[in-house]
Fold this sequence. Notes:
Blueprint: E1 6-10, E2 16-20, E3 23-28, E4 31-37, E5 41-47, H1 54-62, E6 66-70, E7 76-80, H2 88-98, H3 101-129, H4 136-155, H5 159-175
Parallel strand pairs: 1-5, 5-6
Antiparallel strand pairs: 2-3, 3-4, 6-7
Amino acid sequence: MRQLLNTLYxxxxxxxLSLNGENVVIKEDNNAIGRYxxxxxxxxxxxxxxxxxxxxxxxxxxxxxxxxxxxxxGRFRARVTGRSYGNVLLRKSQxxxxxxxxxxxxxARNFILGKIYNEKWLVERYIREYPLRIQSxxxxxISNQLTEYMGCVKKSxxxxxxxxxxxxxxxxxxxx
Length: 176
């Protein structure tokens, strides 16, 4: 399972980042003002002109911690990431599928059906759990409309039509 890690934002303009053991050390005028363990980080965003040590950069690349260099005003300069470990065969098959509308429609239909189904389920849960706090009739009407849109999505054979039904379902859901 993927871990949800933190992003370290360094917004002081005149700081330098270095490595000390397994920690990122933030230094200002050669004084350490912060220390953060690498194992808690997913990325580092640095708003500084001074940068970081090559040792820290290498350690971040080895540990799949991305680094984004920005100017003190927030303008993008560079991004450093390690080697990509994606599944090449999966990407190739995804690109092949993207070239065929019939395959795209099947996948899009399932995504949209799942989205509408989850919204309908949530609306019905509110009807069950909070009948005295909400206007149940309005939510029942929304649930029925979402069911109708699910039927329309199942019958649809065009990507633009699918997008249209998805948009209508979203309007219906968020108006309630």
